[in-house]
Design brief:
alpha+beta; 7-stranded mixed β-sheet; 18 helices; 31 strands; 26% strand; zinc ion binding; Aminopeptidase; metalloaminopeptidase activity; Peptidase_M1_dom; Peptidase_M4/M1_CTD_sf
């Protein structure tokens, strides 16, 4: 229709109208996300009618150190803040995952090699489905507060209590449960909690969690979240206040969620004084129980008992650890207007590494995670040392990282110990405060936490050999078979490689999003907004996706669709480079030959390598403004601006399918280099192949895609031009030297 086209418009058809398969990777996600409503808005924040339930607990438990058993009783007060009337309640019985006939054992597949001649005893227990352990809750009574039996039904790891009268909106209901269970030996049976036995001194170290029947979540999104606990999917829990009494041998030190209410009853005078001093020590930890004191207790077991009283407000769960082996240190941290205590509990087997590094790692985590989210709101943050475990609960976590038996360690041991502490303490934010549904969406806590773990390690421990959660670290997974891969947006029970799909890939994706797509400043602002909006609430994936866009003005639907909903990978081929040079003379009005041929040079299809040969020169002809315009083009100024410039036409092929920004490193013939970053929207009209012009002052010797391995590209062999095939041009190059 138009007779005269600008150079830019002439080149547009090269990108826009090539016939290639279109997968709508840049289309909006509206049809994939739940419809916004008055509970959860389209901006990603809680709406005016948002509500959530509350459950308060009063618990008394006793730890039997002789028989490795927990006995407990609790009163639960459940508050119905929903707009609906409830006729029954669902309670989680997570210890039932260890019952002899549990669902997980029944559905877990296993096979033996056809040539098997032997099998380890521990492996046999799992593969053959018989641990020989009498696990699971033993319910003694379920009653109302007047002592009347309540009707209940146990379905594997869930218990349904039928209410005597319906619980209306705005009402609360209290009831009592008594129970006991055998504690599992983690060395023999594994598990997120349990005990470790030290045969050298005959003592136990207990890390106790999922130890009480606890309320399932009822919310606006799912109704009751009563999915069974099979093993991989963790927990969906309701906020509430806890008053917990823990009875243990009198020589045990008990670390716990919450604040200790009765230090005078359970600590010696000296320990009390040290504890007070720790609350004012901001530069280094104060030793409250020394190694020498702990070793003395290991040798003589006390006969009496002590009851430790802990209170915790507005938490979603509760856990504790207990042992006479514990060394204990603590240090105060200034976080905004709060002064939490960073504390560590560890047996002598953790020293000297734990005394040197654990509480320091807790402090670093609280500071960095608070900067990225919200100020840490709780009074304590605790790291407990236990073998071969990393597990999190409000204010307390259980962490591996043990020196060799002679007390020596190297950077590898130290790195593993530090990063697991950072990770598990970081879980205080995700999901303990920003309270996502772990059972359904593991990435919402593990992935976000692993991402912040990565930033914390890079900031505070750059000297350590830490490489997890970076874009480069997931390349072996991303280039693997799609048959053994699931998208991030998959339930952990259906995940095939949970470590990658819930932890490493979402973390690496967020690193790419922060560093390559949004930029740190914009990303951090949006990420903090998400944390502020959903602190002490129950966010869903759409709330995160929508908030990140709402708070940044960056359209990220293509990013979520590619990284979170697909198994595509990044594999960009620098497929072709053509070299042109702009001459300065005029040659009359422009013609349309260039537009129709799609070519700027007569010999652009030449077999010669443009970096080794000579450029195809083209002239800038005079243009004029057509149609109804009354202005004129300053042809000479434009020619002067581009005269002598090198123009490189590069074709990029998206062989992996995952939309990605382009990060290019230009190496010039004088040895200098330049980094250029192209937004991912370059693929918006053709998801498979794009061609772009680059204008450079200097002559180029090499162009490299993803030079710093920041994008998880799975095939670096096709990232460079000239690539290995350029060897056939060597003689040509020599002839032109």
């Amino acid at each position: 229709m138009k007779r005269l086209l600008t150079l830019a418009l002439m080149l547009t058809p090269l990108l826009a109208f090539s016939q290639a398969k279109w997968n709508s990777k840049f289309e909006q996600m509206d049809n994939m996300l739940p419809t916004p409503n008055s509970y959860r808005t389209g901006s990603g924040e809680a709406g005016p009618d948002y509500w959530q339930q509350k459950a308060d607990y009063k618990i008394k438990v006793e730890l039997d150190d002789e028989n490795q058993k927990i006995t407990g009783s609790e009163t639960i007060t459940y508050y119905n803040n929903s707009p609906t009337t409830l006729r029954y309640l669902w309670i989680q019985l997570d210890q039932n995952v260890r019952q002899p006939e549990n669902l997980g054992t029944k559905v877990n597949g296993a096979r033996l090699p056809s040539t098997i001649t032997q099998l380890g005893t521990r492996q046999a227990q799992g593969a053959l489905g018989d641990t020989g352990f009498d696990g699971g809750f033993k319910l003694m009574s379920v009653k109302d507060t007047q002592g009347k039996d309540l009707r209940y039904l146990v379905n594997n790891t869930m218990m349904k209590i039928t209410l005597p009268t319906p619980l209306k909106s705005g009402e609360s209901y209290s009831f009592n449960i008594d129970w006991w269970y055998n504690i599992n030996d983690r060395a023999q049976l594994g598990g997120r909690s349990g005990y470790e036995y030290f045969k050298e001194d005959g003592n136990y170290l207990y890390t106790i969690a999922q130890f009480y029947p606890r309320m399932a979540v009822y919310d606006d999104f799912n109704g009751w979240q009563n999915k069974q606990f099979i093993g991989s999917g963790e927990f969906a829990l309701t906020f509430g206040d806890f008053e917990v009494e823990i009875t243990a041998p009198s020589d045990h030190i008990v670390a716990s969620t919450g604040e200790l209410q009765n230090p005078k009853d359970v600590l010696t005078k000296q320990e009390q004084n040290r504890f007070k001093r720790a609350k004012k020590s901001f530069d280094k930890p104060v030793i409250i129980v020394s190694q020498a004191e702990a070793e003395a207790k290991e040798k003589t077991k006390a006969n009496g008992k002590s009851t430790w009283v802990y209170h915790a407000k507005n938490v979603r769960d509760f856990a504790f650890a207990s042992s006479r082996k514990f060394i204990w240190d603590a240090q105060a941290v200034k976080i905004g207007d709060n002064t939490p205590l960073a504390m560590s509990y560890y047996p002598k087997e953790g020293n000297p590494l734990w005394e040197r590094e654990s509480t320091k790692a807790v402090v670093n985590t609280l500071i960095n995670f608070s900067e990225m989210t919200i100020d840490y709101p709780y009074p304590v943050a605790i790291s407990v040392h236990a073998a071969s475990i990393g597990m999190e609960y409000p204010m307390i976590c259980f962490n591996f990282g043990r020196p060799r038996p002679d007390g020596t360690y190297d950077d590898f041991i130290k790195t593993r110990m530090v990063y697991v502490i950072v990770h598990e303490v970081g879980h205080n934010y995700f999901p303990m405060i920003i309270n996502s549904d772990e059972r359904q969406w593991a990435w919402m806590d593990e992935g976000l936490d692993s991402f912040l773990e990565y930033l914390t390690m890079k900031k505070y421990y750059p000297e350590l050999p830490y490489s997890s959660n970076s874009p480069a670290s997931i390349v072996p997974y991303m280039k693997g078979s799609k048959d053994f891969m699931r998208p991030i947006m998959t339930s952990p029970e259906q995940s095939l490689q949970l470590g990658y799909e819930a932890y490493n890939k979402p973390a690496a994706a967020l690193v790419v999003l922060r560093e390559q797509v949004m930029g740190p400043e914009l990303f951090d602002e949006a990420f903090r907004e998400y944390a502020k909006r959903w602190a002490f609430k129950h966010p869903k994936p759409a709330d995160f996706f929508r908030t990140m866009e709402d708070a940044s003005a960056v359209d990220l639907d293509w990013f979520w669709k590619g990284w979170f909903y697909s198994t595509d990978n990044v594999d960009v081929e620098v497929a072709d480079v053509q070299w042109f040079k702009v001459a300065g003379e005029s040659q009359g009005l422009e013609t349309q030959v260039q537009a129709e041929s799609g070519n700027l040079g007569e010999n652009s299809g030449s077999d010669s390598n443009p970096f080794f040969g000579k450029p195809q020169e083209f002239k800038l002809t005079d243009s004029r403004v057509g149609s109804e315009y009354r202005s004129e083009v300053d042809n000479e100024a434009i020619r002067e601006r581009f005269a002598g410039k090198n123009v490189y036409q590069i074709t990029f092929k998206n062989k992996g399918g995952l939309i990605t920004p382009l990060v290019l490193e230009w190496t010039f013939k004088d040895g200098s280099k330049e980094i250029e970053r192209i937004p991912a929207e370059i693929w918006r009209r053709n998801e498979n192949q794009v061609t772009k012009l680059f204008v450079k002052e200097k002559e180029v010797e090499k162009v490299l895609f993803d030079p710093f391995q920041e994008l998880s590209d799975v095939d670096i062999e096709n990232n460079t031009f000239p690539n290995k095939t350029a060897s056939k041009f060597d003689n040509f190059k020599k002839g032109n030297d």
